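Consider the tokenized backbone below.
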């Protein structure tokens, strides 16, 4: 099947397709605001665009607005740009995932490659220093981009005075009012708390605390089997912790394709990560030296106890809008505090917009970035484009799991006749050559048209491999389109080609 024409595939209409339930039609939003930074303008003059929040959505929106010729100010409360993602999320976690993987490889894999070491040990302070260095360089890099693009940067916590004015309590103890013809709320999300569990960031930690532990816990309990919990569990498990994951649901990572999820869980169990699914945390006792959790079956039943040195609460995230003053200017929100927006990210109040984690859709940094660009393009009179059904997701464990589009379960539920093509990395030349061949590529395609509906990859660097599939799905490609593209040999990407061949015809190497 030939690929559709560019004009047919890409009419620049904003196609915000929300894969979650209709009740998620409201948006909730979060706040990251700011005070004057030395060397930047005050931001007191009228702006075309004011962005509240300097995370991935906010700082990208600010830069894009400035590039489009709009006078722009960005307000950020943290004192450093990049939001949760850069400061205490995506970036530091990936730094620790990489460092801990190197240690694990040195312990378990180097010898089979002919590299012998007399001993290997962890220098945790050095590992943390490397993480902090990466974060510091990147946050300063964004400040540099603000200067380059002439974005005014105000450090402090802001709240609406009117639909076109934001009062900012600056980090240096002062106050200023920032005016804007258009104001974008991009304040991100915060850790979701659990009833009866108090996070102290020492023995009971959020992801923030898990990124800054001063010593390796002997026993780590992770509450929640989503992206963050599995990634942080992997970090400390590689460094020597006994990791137990407690999950209320019957499966890990519920957004993942069922078949891939089962293989993924088996891989994590091979790495000595233990899972207690369908299990509820009924109580937490911190009166002793460690932490004692009281557990019970999710459906009810006899209670048991589980002891830990550190407990990571990783039950998801919630949009953050505290103190913004949305009610004072009449911005509509749902009962959970999410901001309601239309297809152009506009709220019911003229001049006020919202993007990122405060609106429905995946709570992902790259989704927020796309929101930011599209929102500013609409403000500038252009056309934005974001399709939430085509946003990739990645779990950065080893192997990684990456996916885009629909799962087989979702396609089945929609009543679409489909075909599935799979190819294991055990049959991939590059994976065998580097002795890292655990994983699979799975493609789900429409049976009649061969149009790709979903792609799921479990493999080393799956987060890089997925983007060929993201591009294919965005341009309406068929599995045959991927199969007939020449892929370099030997590469891991050939597994995607072979899975595509298996979808519409037959693979060669299995």
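A designed sequence for it:
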């Amino acid at each position: 099947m030939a690929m559709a024409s560019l004009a047919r595939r890409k009419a620049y209409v904003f196609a915000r397709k929300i894969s979650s339930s209709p009740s998620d039609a409201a948006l909730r939003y979060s706040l990251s605001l700011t005070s004057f930074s030395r060397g930047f303008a005050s931001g007191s003059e009228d702006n075309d665009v004011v962005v509240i929040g300097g995370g991935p959505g906010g700082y990208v929106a600010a830069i894009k607005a400035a590039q489009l010729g709009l006078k722009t100010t960005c307000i950020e409360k943290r004192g450093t740009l990049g939001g949760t993602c850069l400061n205490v999320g995506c970036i530091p976690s990936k730094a620790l995932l990489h460092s801990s993987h190197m240690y694990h490889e040195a312990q378990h894999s180097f010898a089979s490659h002919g590299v012998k070491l007399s001993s290997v040990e962890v220098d945790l302070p050095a590992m943390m220093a490397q993480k902090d260095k990466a974060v510091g360089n990147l946050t300063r890099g964004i400040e540099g981009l603000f200067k380059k693009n002439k974005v005014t940067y105000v450090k402090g916590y802001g709240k609406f005075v009117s639909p076109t004015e934001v009062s900012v309590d600056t980090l240096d103890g002062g106050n200023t009012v920032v005016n804007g013809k258009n104001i974008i709320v991009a304040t991100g999300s915060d850790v979701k708390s659990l009833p009866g569990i108090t996070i102290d960031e020492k023995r009971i930690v959020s992801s923030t605390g898990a990124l800054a532990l001063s010593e390796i816990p002997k026993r780590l309990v992770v509450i929640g089997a989503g992206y963050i919990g599995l990634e942080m569990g992997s970090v400390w498990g590689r460094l020597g912790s006994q990791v137990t994951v407690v999950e209320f649901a019957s499966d890990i990572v519920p957004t993942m394709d069922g078949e891939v999820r089962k293989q993924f869980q088996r891989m994590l169990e091979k790495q000595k990560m233990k899972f207690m699914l369908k299990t509820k945390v009924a109580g937490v006792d911190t009166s002793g030296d460690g932490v004692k959790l009281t557990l019970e079956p999710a459906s009810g039943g006899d209670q048991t106890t589980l002891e830990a040195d550190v407990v990571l609460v990783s039950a998801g995230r919630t949009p953050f809008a505290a103190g913004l003053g949305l009610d004072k200017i009449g911005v509509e929100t749902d009962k959970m505090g999410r901001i309601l927006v239309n297809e152009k990210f506009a709220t019911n109040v003229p001049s006020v917009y919202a993007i990122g984690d405060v609106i429905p859709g995946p709570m992902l940094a790259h989704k927020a970035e796309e929101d930011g660009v599209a929102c500013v393009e609409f403000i500038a009179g252009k056309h934005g484009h974001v399709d939430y059904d085509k946003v990739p997701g990645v779990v950065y464990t080893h192997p990684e799991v990456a996916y885009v589009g629909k799962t087989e379960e979702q396609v089945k539920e929609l009543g679409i006749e489909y075909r599935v093509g799979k190819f294991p990395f055990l049959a991939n030349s590059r994976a065998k050559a580097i002795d890292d061949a655990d994983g699979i590529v799975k493609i789900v395609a429409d049976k009649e048209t061969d149009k790709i509906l979903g792609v799921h990859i479990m493999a080393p660097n799956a987060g890089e491999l997925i983007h060929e599939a993201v591009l294919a799905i965005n341009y309406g490609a068929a599995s045959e389109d991927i199969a007939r593209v020449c892929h370099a040999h030997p590469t891991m990407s050939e597994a995607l080609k072979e899975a595509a061949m298996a979808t519409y015809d037959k693979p060669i190497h299995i």
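The two ends are 24 Å apart (CA to CA).
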